[in-house]
Amino acid sequence: MAEKRNITRLIFSISSLVDLGQEVTSAKSFNERMKTALYVVTGMFSVPKAALLVYNSNQQRLKLLTHKGLKDTTWGNIHVKAKHIKSFSKNEPYSLSKIKTNFLYNPNTEALEKFHTKTFIPLFAKDEFVGAICLGKRLSRPSYLRSEKNVLKVVANQIAITLHNSSLFRRLTNKVNENKKLYENMRHIYNDTIKAFAAAIDAKDVYTKNHSFRVAKYAVAIAGELGWKEKDVEAIYVAGLLHDIGKITIDRGVINKGEDLSVSELSEIKRHPQISYDILSKINFPWKDLVHFVKHHHERIDGRGYPDSLQGEELSDGVKILAIADAFDAMTTDRPYRKKLSLTEALHEVKKCLGTQFDRRISNVFFRVLQKEIKGETKEAQILPHLDKGFNPTVITSLLETITAELSA
Ligand SMILES: [Fe+2]
Predict the structure, then answer these.
(1) What is the Å distance from ligand 1's center to 272 Cα?
(2) pLDDT digits (tens, 9 = 90+) for 367-392
(3) Least enclosed by CB within 10 Å: which of 27, 92, 169, 172?
(4) C-alpha 243 – ligand 1 centre gap (Å)
């Protein structure tokens, strides 16, 4: 008879352990999983009141994670010192009296008594104290048989591992979040540094204040319309900001002279894309194409540009974008040798230079972006805010429609 009872108990314990195993590995939230695990344990041993506590090693305190049958959960946290942790047997059930006399202080035992703790199990995973299970009075026999204590140890071990893994995961998530914040801060510093560089470049040329910022914005607008990936858009943005960095080494008098440049002065100015490249290629940017965009921003489709006289499809899309963004801004701002063009004049000028200076496809995208911005169809206008407001939107829209229709034909 006793043997049959033992077998029935064994089968019950095994099936409960299987339940527990499934619960702690289920897809539920961590708190839900731990609550269900505690319910499985209390069901196994007929305990109506119980609590699962998690250990915070920084505060050296056990805190309530989840419970069963407790009305009052306002009791304080339980202070557990390192020396007590050392003397605990791992995942071993302790009677309350033993815990009271050997390990915990009075205020702590009061907290344990509030929910009638009769058995206290310190939870360990990989030698780390991670929490505790407090079991109340059993409805069946008050004490635990040796075999039941063994099952309790197995259960405690499983819960301890789950707690440990979750705390590892939490620590890892915190670390990832910390790194993310650090990375964001670095990015801000990085962006500010690049902008400061761009401001320094623009400051050298009295006529081109904020030129680099506008070129960067126009280039972003075109790349965005082309459906470029975020990282590539960033590359063209920074390329726009830094494309003229080489001008820093060129004499201010030559840069601001404008008209009547001597042959040597002109060739001096024409050196700036190569110098920009030389400077920037020493920096380990996260965008490998950036220096290429910068080096070739004065190339032309017909091969009459510089420094390498690239032509046609030798020019990458990034180069074509930067070329039109740069030239369009030059047309729509005052220069030492001429007044700025009106928007209508600038658009006609771009149109005139299609297939010679500018790529037709990329220019068409540029026209389309401008059209969308005028119609208010973009989330944030990148070009329009920098243009003179004196144009007639209806006239410009109709001009753009005509040009884009011709280009698409
Ligand atoms: Fe340039």
Answers:
(1) 7
(2) 999 999 999 999 999 999 999 988 99
(3) 27
(4) 6
